[in-house]
Design brief:
Elements lengths: L12 E9 L15 H17 L4 E7 L5 H9 L16 E10 L3 E7 L8 H7 L24 H9 L8 E5 L15 H6 L4 E5 L7 H7 L12 E5 L15 E5 L4 H9 L1 H4 E2 L8 E8 L8 E4 L4 E6 L5 H11 L15 H13 L5 E8 L2 E8 L5 E5 L5 E2 L2 H7 L3 E3 L11 H9 L3 H54 L6 H49 L6 H37 L2 H27 L4 H31 L2 H33 L4 E10 L1 H10 L7 H12 L4 H17 L12 H5 L4 H7 L5 H9 L3 E11 L2 E4 L5 H14 L5 E4 L10 H14 L2 E4 L3 H5 L5 E9 L2 E11 L4 H10 L3 H10 L4
Parallel strand pairs: 1-2, 2-3, 6-7, 12-22, 12-23, 17-21, 21-22
Antiparallel strand pairs: 1-8, 3-4, 4-5, 8-9, 10-11, 10-13, 13-14, 14-15, 15-16, 18-19, 19-20, 23-24
Helix pairs in contact: 1-2, 13-17, 13-18, 14-15, 14-16, 14-17, 19-24, 21-24, 25-26, 28-29
Length: 938
């Protein structure tokens, strides 16, 4: 009805209800009073349509001592059609409870609400049971109300109705508990009536906001004078107008699986999680269905889960744990090992389960889940190992396990695993990381991006370093060759003055030739850069043009910004295009330059001819001239190579500064990550309500970098004890991450030293301080490659959580020193306080001390608003008093035969068959239901 979506599961769901609605027969009705069957049918249709418009899911038709209109409105609800012209399915129809507003001799008024499916022919008999005179059904208006003076207490009302076996258990009575007024139960002297009544709820003419503090304490069961008897409250609108102006004005959200009076009674008994006066909070991420094509143990299986609290129950060996294992396997959940015993390893056990029960028969597992209203399906094949994922309306596509875990990172524990979490750092870490996984994923994605940028830029850093060295070498070589050429020319004697002038002019002509060649290369490079810039501006322009799906409210503002930016980009493109065109024109159309270039080339060529002639004439110096020619050729080559190196070096820019900046941002991301973890630890401490103190030991997980360091220096001759001393000292630092950054910088400075450069301990104070002496630093100098250094630099130092258990106020012990029950209680308290991904635990009661079960129950009421819970359990208190929305009951395929199981029932505790099953198969089932009643003074 209304915005409520169709549900596949058979569990309990919230319905928005108005349980005091009058019809045109009411004596105080405002408007026309339809009297003929056709007019009444027309009114009923309008009423149902109005309920849909107001998004009311359920109503109780409660005229004074009359049930005439209820069948008419129920028929209209059954005949309602959707936008496609078809009858609505039952789960989307308006739920109509027949009811009566009673004026009793208590004295007070009360609502008698009957099962929504109570047959029409039974309704007159209800009035007979009340000894209430039936009004003329054809009359358009009911007569004045005559109080039922013979019913002097609410207890007597129940006794009267229970005499009819067909009516017993099919009604609920809600007395008027409004503040003030002569028809309410909440008046002076009514304490005995309140204390003895079997009622578990009451109704208000209006809002709960109007309740005074005194009555609020009574309703909460905090007033001994009124029997310390808590009751649930239903806001009602007391609607009685043709315009429906009050309909749904004061409504109450009530949860049930089937619309019966027993469901309303169970909702009252568990009102903390089953009744709400405002739209209830529900998990946005939940598993909706598990489908098994075939299983040797369970056969074909189809379970539709509720979005809130689900309990899987059954005798031992009926398949409770198997269902949870299939679910976790389908979602690719990684099973953490509980200890060192391989036989107890959940991973090994689950692999054997899949091998022996699914793979043997070619079983395929499908898990349906919803993330923020987007449906997803994971399909996993036990034989091929293939994993397929479907998102929304897309087709199935192949994915890896990590993809599924990233989408739905469930929080799951096997039997007795919760109490062993303290033994494993990775499991404690998961407690901290799971609630903030999306935030951590965002930071981690940035870290991956910066890792790639650092690797890419570091290649430029190395290239720049090689070029810097090569440029210095080429500069030295070019100067040396120039001096050698000058000396060779000066050594030539017996030359004419003109020939010597030619020889001495050679360096100048070479410099001109080299300068023109260098300038030509630079011009080509600049022109190429200009063209590239023009292309890049074109891409930016296309990005601006392609911006779509702008919200209506932002459209004008965004358009103004884009218009200005587009104009600026167009101006830049035009300016750059002019530059590119000018280059092209200058290179092609400038005849003066071409003539000048030709003249220069001719002058250089003429000089080359003249120079060769001088050498030919100097026959007595052929050996020297030959040597001079070789030196000049080498000098030309060196100058060309130097120019290319300088050009390449300029193109690289300043990668070293960029490297430093990227490293700083890279380290800052890890500090941001540590900050998120530290904040979450503080929140976990708060959520545990003092049982647990969580903190982050920053940068303590350095095993990975120690292993990589050892691998990088292998064969250097450094003793293992030195390495152990270095990293032991690093672990003891107050800020290991900051110290490690300094150590990395010092190691890199060692690598950058030229071979004959002197290395002193002043350049590496942290390495020296941490017990890694100068001699060992020298040994690793030629062993750690730049790639190995970068690998070290990009390996994170992990943060490790530290959990402590509070034994007394402000007194803590190591979490591992607490008992298994204490650990599990503290961790479960945290888990039930967190929101987000589904929580799946197999038999949590086995990890808990029995005296804390009731505390866990009260936490479940709140927890299921923010996260889906799926427990397999033998403990009836967790199921019954925890108010499971869906109970999945497992049984043996053959009585007593544990070789095969099945699902015998699915539903909620307001269904009689489920209550009987819980009482029969669960430990303390009958006691749990009795406890549920005792909370309400029965």
């Amino acid at each position: 009805m209304g915005s409520r979506s169709m549900r596949d599961d058979s569990g309990a769901h919230f319905y928005r209800c108005d349980f005091q609605v009058h019809t045109p027969r009411d004596a105080q009705w405002k408007g026309r009073r339809p009297q003929t069957p056709e007019d009444r049918k027309s009114y009923a249709n309008k009423f149902v349509a109005k309920c849909r418009e107001l998004e009311l899911h359920a109503v109780a038709i409660t005229d004074h001592h009359d049930l005439t209109f209820a069948p008419v409105i129920r028929a209209a609800a059954r005949n309602e059609v959707g936008s496609d012209g078809r009858l609505l399915p039952p789960d989307r129809q308006l739920v109509v409870f027949p009811g009566v507003e009673l004026t009793l001799g208590v004295p007070c008024q009360a609502l008698l609400i009957l099962d929504a499916d109570l047959p029409d022919d039974r309704l007159p008999q209800v009035l007979e049971a009340l000894a209430c005179e039936q009004s003329d059904e054809q009359a358009e208006k009911l007569p004045d109300v005559k109080p039922l003076e013979h019913i002097s207490s609410l207890k007597a009302l129940y006794e009267l109705l229970d005499q009819r076996t067909w009516l017993k258990g099919r009604y609920i009575v809600l007395p008027n508990v409004t503040d003030g007024g002569h028809q309410t139960l909440m008046r002076t002297g009514m304490q005995p009536k309140y204390k003895e009544m079997p009622c578990v709820g009451g109704y208000l003419d209006g809002s709960v906001a109007d309740i005074g503090k005194g009555n609020a304490r009574k309703f909460a069961g905090e007033d001994p004078a009124w029997g310390s008897k808590p009751i649930a409250l239903f806001q009602t609108s007391d609607s009685r107008s043709e315009t429906f102006e009050d309909l749904g004005k004061y409504s109450t959200w009530v949860k049930w699986a089937e619309p019966t009076a027993e469901a309303l009674r169970q909702a009252c008994l568990g009102h903390q999680s089953r009744i709400s006066q405002q739209a209830p909070a529900l998990p946005g991420v939940f598993i909706s269905r598990l489908n098994i094509s075939n299983s040797k143990f369970l056969g074909p299986l189809d379970v539709a889960f509720n979005s809130q609290y689900n309990s899987v129950i059954g005798g031992r060996g009926t398949g409770k744990s198997t269902i949870l294992d299939y679910l976790r396997w389908g979602l690719c959940d990684q099973v953490a090992q509980a200890g060192d015993d391989e036989l107890a390893d959940p991973t090994v056990r689950r692999e054997k389960l899949i091998e022996n029960t699914l793979k043997l028969v070619g079983g395929q597992v499908e898990v349906y889940f919803t993330i923020n209203d987007i449906p997803h399906v994971v399909r996993r094949d036990s034989r091929s190992g293939e994993i397929l994922l479907k998102v929304g309306d897309d087709e199935f596509s192949k994915v890896r396990e990590s993809h599924v875990r990233s989408l739905l990172p469930i929080h799951a524990y096997s039997q007795k695993q919760l109490s062993s979490v303290a033994l494993r750092v990775d499991e404690l870490t998961r407690f901290v990381t799971s609630p903030i996984k999306r935030d951590l994923d965002t930071v981690d994605q940035k870290i991956v991006e910066f890792t790639g940028r650092l690797r890419e830029n570091y290649a430029k850093v190395q290239r720049a370093q090689h070029l810097d060295v090569a440029i210095r070498q080429q500069q030295l070589a070019e100067r040396s060759l120039a001096e050698q050429a000058t000396n060779l020319r000066n050594s030539l004697t017996d030359l004419s003055e003109s020939d010597r002038e030619v020889l001495n002019a050679k360096p100048g002509y070479d410099r001109v030739r080299q300068s023109l060649r260098n300038q030509e290369r630079d011009l080509r490079q600049v022109a190429s850069s200009a063209v590239a810039l023009l292309d890049e501006l074109g891409r930016v322009s296309r990005d601006l043009d392609g911006m779509a799906d702008v919200p209506e409210r932002l459209r004008d503002l965004v358009t103004a910004v884009l218009t200005r930016r587009q104009a600026a980009v167009d101006d830049l493109r035009q300016a750059v295009a002019v530059v590119v065109a000018a280059f092209e024109q200058a290179r092609v159309a400038d005849s003066a330059e071409q003539l000048a270039t030709v003249a220069v080339d001719k002058a250089l060529s003429d000089f080359d001819v003249l120079y060769e002639e001088v050498k030919q004439r100097s026959t007595s110096h052929q050996a020297r001239l030959k040597e001079l020619a070789q030196v000049e050729e080498q000098r030309t080559s060196a100058a060309d190579l130097l120019q290319r190196h300088e050009l390449d070096r300029r193109a690289l820019g300043d990668p070293r500064t960029l490297h430093t900046d990227l490293r700083s941002e890279f380290v800052a991301l890890f500090r941001e990550r540590s900050g998120l973890l530290s904040e979450e630890c503080g929140r976990l401490t708060e959520l545990s309500r003092g049982l647990l103190r969580a903190s982050i030991s920053r940068g303590r997980g350095i095993d990975a970098i120690e292993q990589k360091f050892r691998a990088a220096i292998q064969g250097s001759g450094v003793r293992g004890g030195r390495v152990e001393q270095l990293f032991s000292g690093l672990r003891d630092e107050s800020d290991p991450v900051a110290t490690w950054e300094e150590v990395l910088n010092e190691i890199e400075s060692i690598l950058l030293l030229e071979e004959d450069a002197e290395h002193t301990s002043e350049a590496t104070p942290n390495l020296t301080r941490l017990g890694f002496p100068l001699a060992d630093q020298q040994r690793i100098r030629n062993r750690i490659t730049p790639d190995a250094w970068l690998d070290l630099a990009l390996t994170p130092i992990n943060d490790e959580p530290v959990f402590e258990y509070q034994t007394k106020e402000k007194e803590f012990i190591a979490f591992s020193a607490a008992s298994a029950g204490q650990q599990a209680t503290a961790l479960l308290r945290v888990l039930l306080s967190q929101t987000g991904v589904p929580l799946i635990i197999d038999q949590p009661e086995e990890d808990l001390d029995s005296q804390v079960i009731q505390d866990v129950v009260s936490q479940i009421w709140k927890a299921k608003e923010g996260r889906q819970i799926i427990f397999a359990s033998h403990n009836a208190n967790l199921v019954v008093n925890g108010d499971a929305e869906l109970v999945v009951a497992c049984d043996y395929r053959k009585a007593g035969d544990q070789s095969g199981g099945k699902i015998s029932l699915q539903g909620a505790i307001d269904i009689p068959g489920l209550r009987s099953e819980i009482t029969k198969v669960m430990e303390g089932g009958e006691k749990a239901f009795r406890l549920r009643k005792e909370r309400y003074g029965f």
